[in-house]
Amino acid sequence: MLPKRAYLVLGISFLLIGFILILNSFSGITGKVILEDASPKISFYWALWFIIGGILILESAVAEVEREKESPLIYKIGKVVPAAKQSSCLILLDSDFVKNIQKKFDEGGKMAMPHSFFGEYEHQMPMQVMHELSSRSNPKRAPLVSNKTLNYLTNVQNTSVNNYKPSLEESAQVLALWKRYTGSGKHTGREQEEKFKRSGDMSLLCQAINRGKKYTIILSDNYHEIGVIAEKLKYEGINVHVMGKNQLFGKK
Length: 252
What we know:
Layout: H1 4-30, H2 40-70, H3 72-80, E1 90-93, H4 95-108, E2 122-126, H5 127-134, H6 147-156, E3 160-162, H7 168-181, H8 183-186, H9 190-197, H10 200-211, E4 216-219, H11 223-234, E5 240-243, H12 245-249
Helix pairs in contact: 1-2, 2-3, 7-10, 7-11
């Protein structure tokens, strides 16, 4: 699939070629031919083909831009995981994704998400993630995000908060992958391991395991833990995908 910029360049190029051929066909009538090897009649038909093609390509590019503006999430899912349909896919929010929403609000004075951001996708935030965001047990002794941001997600975007309790088997599977493949898991003590077991990351990944082949998309920038484990789970038949802020909102 070509990027949007390529479609714009291709569409404009088709239009330019079409106009050149149009000029050639009319020039042929007056005897001033731009392309000597092309008869006026053939140039005219080719010109129509290029002009119509260019218009259709440009219309497609504009429609693509509009779809992305309406909801970058739905647009990206359609590109990256087209099989993850709105009727059956579950979207889970991690704490760092919510913190990014707060950051964008602080920078621009308004939430970065359109009301149609999630579309018809079911979207949830684990209770553990909610606790991490609202807890004061951090160096700043203040919640990681404001109540306004949490209320915006739950009341405006209708994000539900779930209290999923992982099974022992699910927890053990995630913990084993964390200890084997992540940097923090390889060099951890007992206290850090217990903290990970109670974390939002554990809840997010265990829910994906529970859903199995049903698509689960985790909105998170924690690629060094959630992203790494999610990739390993795919090899075990779990349809889980991780998307971060750069994919959805672009790099600054």
